[in-house]
Amino acid sequence: MAVGSAAQLSTYDSTKVMLQQSWGGAVFGRDSAMTHFTAAMICGVAVTVAMNPFDVIATRLYNQTTRLDARGRVRGSLYSGPLDCAVKVGRVEGFRGFYKGAVAHYCRLGPHTVRAFTAIDVPPASQLLTSCRVVACVLLTCTDLELCDLGTVEASCR
User: Fold this and answer.
1) Is it true that domain 2-123 has CATH number 3.40.50.300?
2) Where are the domains of the chain?
3) Coil, helix or strand at residue 139
4) 7: closest CA among 137, 113, 124?
5) What percent of the chain has pLDDT over 90?
6) Which of 44, 71, 94, 136 is a Cys-bridge partner for 110, taking CB atoms 3.0 to 4.6 Å apart?
7) CB atoms closer than 10 angstroms to residue 112
8) Where are the beta strands (DSSP E) in 28-140?
9) b or e along 39-52 (b: 16 or more beta carbons within 10 Å of the residue's beta carbon)?
10) What is the pLDDT of residues 94-103, one digit of tens each?
11) Cα-Cα-Cα-Cα dihedral sign, residues 130, 111, 44, 5
């Protein structure tokens, strides 16, 4: 958890500052929604890269079958612990083995990071375009976009 938080907090702020400085404010203005959205999505990539190896190891430890040892203690049948799991994954599958499921992990972390940082860092909704509010509200309230009535959603988001 600490690895993910460290990657998330440092990457978001530095990416936001870099976007604002390198593009001269043309696309990524000081408090534009595009700046926050892009920085948060890039931050999601960094968190995925940092956290996925730990998630792979934890998942494999949780999913392994267990057995009783000679002393009656429950032991994993494949791995004796996290370090043993990491060594075995590295030997058998190589570096890529630690990034199995990274796309699915990013699909979960990308939107989460956007929602978390825009809730914290974006200026009040009154300063944003109405269309940005509607899009954000649609994403947060509608599960089936085909059935979503934009007029109703816009009214409920005000």
Assistant:
1) no
2) 2-123, 124-158
3) helix
4) 113
5) 31
6) 44
7) 14
8) 66-68, 74-76
9) bbbbbbbbbbebbb
10) 999 999 999 9
11) positive
